[in-house]
């Protein structure tokens, strides 16, 4: 986790996601088949971060604001 945090600090002021930053921070992106729930199309995306695996976005945002 510490190595991932060190890598992420290099991109604190990143204005747009570059291919280099994506390769350094993300291991894989999984896009699930779309489904319809309550009449709305919904599609889940899961991101596997390099060195740390899957972390829900909500959990990452909570740590950032804490």
Summarize this entry quickly:
The protein has helices at 2-9, 19-25, 57-65; strands at residues 26-31, 35-37, 40-42, 45-49, 53-54.
Describe this structure in words.
This protein has 66 residues and is α+β, with helices and mostly antiparallel strands. The protein is 36% helix and 29% strand. It has 3 helices and 5 strands; from the N terminus they run ααβββββα. The protein has helices spanning 2-9, 19-25, 57-65, and strands spanning 26-31, 35-37, 40-42, 45-49, 53-54. The strands form 2 sheets. It has a 3-stranded antiparallel beta sheet. Strands 2-3 form a two-stranded antiparallel ribbon. A hairpin with a 3-residue loop joins strand 4 (45-49) and strand 5. The radius of gyration is 14 Å and the shape is elongated.
Number of distinct beta strands: 5
Report the β-strand fraction as a percent range.
Answer: 25-35%
- Main sheet specs: 3 strands, antiparallel
The ordered string of helix (H) and strand (E) elements is: HHEEEEEH
Mean pLDDT: 78
Class from helix and strand fractions: alpha+beta
Poorly predicted parts: none
User: Main sheet: which strands, in order across?
Assistant: 1-4-5
Backbone shape:
elongated
Number of helices: 3
